[in-house]
């Protein structure tokens, strides 16, 4: 401690918290183990992280799909986490990043949209929903700066424009409308490249679902944090379709034939279908 010439250090004379930890932090912060750890070690890897989400739009509306793996560093922490959720009657949200914070953000977002509809008697516009999510995300900026980032993706059927729309975000709450398709998460680069080769504007919801599953398979092939379909455990990606009739989360029984077709195709060609090769329709 600093030599004070026989006088008590100011920390002994200052009114404040009755906590000894707070007193010690003021007097000699260098001896606090927790503060040493906080200053020198990045603990963000101790929280489960969700990974890859993809979305495509077509004349029907939009499809969003997410793999089921969550990781903590190099460890698989959960094999069946859900990362795609219904936000309201005509929109869906997918999450990548720190899983616990992301799921809490989704729950708050769902309540926000429901509350608005109850108070106003009408749904918030799709642009309004996207802007509200941006504001909620901005509130997590402090945690993001500590490595606990949340990166959602939002999609929905715009009742005013009568078409599907997709929005992406950054950790500061920046909102960006995407054209045709997008992907977020650790496997997003591989997934986006996969979709780029197969996408066309006139796709149906079923074809968009097949392309999304192919893209997640490609992402899992190159990114260890992304999980592919697990036939042995019966774990398949979560896929949501939003159109003029609303949001529908596809059942595993609907996904199974598409997944089996993809796996059979990969037996013949492990790197996936050729460009312009017919996808499940």
TrEMBL record:
UniProt keyword Cytoplasm, yes or no: yes
GO biological process entries: proteasomal protein catabolic process
Key words, A-Z: Cytoplasm, Hydrolase, Protease
GO molecular function terms attached to this record: threonine-type endopeptidase activity
Entry's Gene Ontology cellular component terms: cytoplasm; proteasome core complex
Annotated protein name in UniProt: Unannotated protein
